[in-house]
Amino acid sequence: MSSPDLVNTIRKYSSRYSIYLVLAAMIVISSIISPVFLSTLNITNISRQISITTILAFGATILIIAGLLDLSAGSVLALAGVLSVASYKATGSLALAMAVGLAVGVVCNIVNGIIVTRFNTPPFIATLAMQTVARGAALQYTSGQNIYQIGNYVVFGQSSVGPIPTPVLFMVGIGVVTWYLLRHTRLGRSLYAIGGNAEAARASGINVNAVKMKAYLINGVFVGIAGVLFMSRVNAGLPNAGIMAEFEAMTSAIIGGTSFSGGIGTASGTLAGAFIMGILNNIMNLMRVQSYMQQIVRGAIIALAVCYDIYSKKKREARKLGSRVKSEFQPGQA
Amino acid sequence: MSGIVKLEMRGIEKSFPGVKALSNVNFTVKQGSVHGLCGENGAGKSTLMKILNGVYQPDAGQILIDGEEVRITSPLDARRLGIAMIFQELNYIPEITIEEFLFLGREPVNRFGGVDWKKIRQDTIKLLQAEGLHYDPTTQLKDLSVSDIQVLEILKALSENADIIIMDEPTSAITEREVDSLFEKILRLKAKGVSIIYISHKMDELFRITDTITVLRDGSVIDTRPTHELNPDTIITLMVGRKIQNIYPKEDVPVGEVLLEVKGLTSRGMFADVSFTARAGEIVGIAGLMGAGRTEVVRALFGLDPYDSGTILVRGRAVEVRDVRTAIQNGIAMLSEDRRRFGIVGVRSVTENAVLPNLSRFIYGGRLHQRKERAEVSAHFQAMNVKTPDLDTAIDALSGGNQQKVLLAKWMISEPDILILDEPTRGIDVGAKHEIYRLMTKLAAQGKAIVMVSSELMELLGMCDRIYVMAAGRIAGELQRDEFSEESIMKLATGGKIR
User: Fold this and answer.
1) CA count, 13 A, side-chain hemisphere, B300
2) Which pLDDT score is estimated for B151?
3) Do B356 and A206 touch (CB under 8 A)?
4) What pLDDT sits at residue B146?
């Protein structure tokens, strides 16, 4: 391999895997800053802390790839959670409680999907409306009061399987489902296609509205599960849970390389993005950075990540133009 | 009529990457005259007018207004120099009122620095009255007809003291009666000494309203003559008049059964009563001017747009094409005319683009078989000589011709019986064009029916077995190979059989 080829290869892989390089660098730096960082306990902690946001982030990834988004995730999480908790208190059935959580998430997102597809509303507006409605419904149902004494319900969020906390297992499971869906199924290809160019997807025989509905439906399942896990972890049914959670989820997806213009994104990237945000929080806690300061830093990181994304996209395009000229003057290199 | 020269464009040259759009164009318009400008699609009319309007800068040449050389570097410059353009497609804000529209971008200011609405109201009423128009200044444009808005555009141009007005196909969206009133208006402008450049394909209009006609072909002025010295036939001959070179690898293959039959296909406001057939082994052309409804017909045929009535028969069986999926399932494939909009998913890889309509064929137990996918795609790419660095390259990174070949490969994978090609060679280089022609010949020999929509007469004449010509949303005629000529097509397309 000649040296320009080597440079190109390195460049190609480093840009494709840049997010993982950032993650690796953060792990190295954090372990130098804090000796406890790499302890099993701390890593388990980080994983548990990011699990619920990451589950939402997988849903956000699927939606953003398809050119959609969900601003109602946090509110629907709260509504699904409190209704699930309430049904558990009424019946004592964990299975029913989980089913209720899932059902609420799915129903709310089917409504999102219908408003977006049948009435052609921008997803931003449609899901903003759902955000308000679902939050209102959660508060209305609980009269604004938290539901306490939830008994055995805590098993979803506070148990462990071996050394691994249950919510982390859910996160990993949902991550695998998302990865498989995006990478290996027809639906996944269709999601990328409609996000990349909906008109072209339609002209290739893809039922764009059906794909959008499926994307919201899957997101609904993830949000429902996140709602159950959240309430279980905090040991109460909180109607005010999950405020701004959708934005944290989208942040992980964007940091992980999902493009807001649609058509680009991966499950593993989102997981890496979530870990980057989680490690950042963790190391700031370990360093006893004040919480307001932490917010400022987080915001700055988001701005940096997005700027870098757009900058590297521009550079990529410039290089592509270059390589296009080259490929035209060197016929037969196919 | 005065013989004073109002506008002179001298030796205008303009090139775009890979194309010479205008070469040594001389164009002179007299004061108080209506000057017709015609030519085939792509002859250079719009480029010339865009140069006059300051949208493009010429590579060489001079523009003189009233005998003085001017430089027009932007549409704003053009407006200052008294040049106004009224576009074919009116772009307007529906919510805006008449008075707001007339003074948009040049609102008078009162002494507090705010907009002087009182003055606007007064001036608007004055302008409307002077033209004998009875509109309320606060009417919103969305409540007016297209021709009303056109009149307002002219009014606006006049109120900005325009004395050169360019009208690009001004009658394409208005009714016969409205045409009459537009022509009255044009005659009045002419009497006032305004010069009008009138671009149109419609022969009857050109002969009704113009004093002089200039014909462009392939970026050069072919002739400029007083209208009374011309007739539609001479204009059409001037517009086309080339010899076919044998660059089209057309082969005669045995023609088989009727694969596609369209009967009375109608979509209100788009096209009406369109009927045609395509047999196995045939390449059938659909010709027509821009806006004749060609693309609309094939889009309906492929399930991209709905149609109101009519029957589509595939192998003699009536098929109701409600969506693209139905069309694909019935063995129809279509290469769309707008590659960027309806063809490629730019950020995704060439492989993903190529398998998009056929994902179900690569599903085994719910899972995409990516090895099979890549094997099939790479076989097609090789057969079609697609040049791509690898199978994971984003399709955006390829040249236009290679993108088009990837899209063709995509429809080859779905193994259609009927292939619709809408402007298959638009915007690609000659080499890729030739490869696409060769592929068409090969597919016809395999017994597929090919329907090609094209604005390039040459490729229609070179590749087709039969050509249907559309005009104003209808099939104006069908030409057999022995009747083929650019003149016969243009005659049908322009309604050139004088009414």
Assistant:
1) 23
2) 81
3) yes
4) 74
Q: Could you count the other beta carbons within 10 Å of the beta carbon of residue B291?
A: 18
Q: Is B355's Cβ below 8 Å from some Cβ in A?
A: yes
- A141 within a domain of the structure (yes/no): yes
* Model pLDDT, residue A207: 95
Element (H, E) at B471: strand B466-471
Find the CB nearest A204 among B347, B357, B394.
Answer: B357
Among B323, B327, B387, select the one facing A327 at the smallest CB separation.
B387
Chain B: residue nearest A195 by CA? Answer: B345
> What is the pLDDT at residue B244?
38
Question: What backbone torsions phi and psi does residue A255 show, to the nearest 5 degrees?
Answer: -60, -35
A228 domain residue, yes or no: yes
Strand order in the sheet with B474-480: B332-335, B418-422, B449-453, B283-288, B466-471, B474-480
Q: Domain range for residue A192?
A: 50-243
DSSP B422: E
**pLDDT at A1 (0 to 100):** 45
DSSP assignment of B129-148 equals HHTT----TT-BGGGS-HHH
For residue B38, list its beta bridge partners. Answer: B215
Taking the Cβ of residue B391 and every Cβ of chain A, the question of whether any pair is shorter than 8 Å is answered with no
Among B156, B180, B199, residue whose Cα is nearest residue B29: B199
Nearest to B389 among A204, A264, A323 (CB): A323
Each residue of A36-82: pLDDT tens digit?
999 999 999 999 999 999 999 999 999 999 999 999 999 999 999 99
Question: How far is it, in rounded angstroms, from Cα B452 to Cα B448?
Answer: 13
The C-alpha of B359 sits at a distance from chain A's nearest C-alpha, in angstroms, of 6
Beta-sheet pairing, B367-368 with B363-364? antiparallel
Query: Which regions of chain B are under pLDDT 70?
Result: 1-2, 17-19, 41-42, 88-91, 172-173, 175, 241-247, 427, 429-431, 496-499
DSSP state of B340: I
> Residue A331: pLDDT above 60?
no
Which CATH number is B5-96+140-239's, of 3.70.10.10, 1.10.3720.10, 2.60.120.10, 3.40.50.300? 3.40.50.300
Across the interface, do B388 and A323 touch by the CB < 8 Å criterion?
no
A110: in domain: yes
Residue A232 within any structural domain of the chain: yes
> Which pLDDT does position A323 carry in this prediction?
42
Number of folded domains that form chain A = 1
Pairing of strands B19-30, B5-16: antiparallel
Q: Which residues of chain A lie closer than 8 angstroms to B323, CB-CB?
A: 205, 207
This model of the complex carries an ipTM of 0.85
Residue B65 corresponds to which tokens in the numbers above? 């207004």
Number of CB pairs < 8 Å for A and B?
99
Provide the shortest C-alpha distance from residue B72 to chain A (in Å).
32
| Number of residues that this document lists for chain A | 334
CATH label, B258-493, candidates 3.30.450.40, 3.40.50.300, 3.30.750.44, 3.90.550.10? 3.40.50.300
- If residue A76 lies in a helix (H) or strand (E), which one and from where to where? helix A73-91
- Candidates B391, B403, B460; CA nearest to B428 is B403
Return the residue in A204, A211, A264 with the most chain B beta carbons within 10 A, the one to mutate for interface testing.
A204
Return phi, psi of residue B226, to 5°: -60, 145
d(CA A157, CA A227): 10
Report the chain A residue with the minimal C-alpha distance to residue B300. Answer: A203
Domain residue limits, chain B: 5-96+140-239, 258-493
Are B5-96+140-239 and B258-493 in the same CATH fold? Answer: yes
Q: Look up tokens 């402008």; give the residue.
A: B189
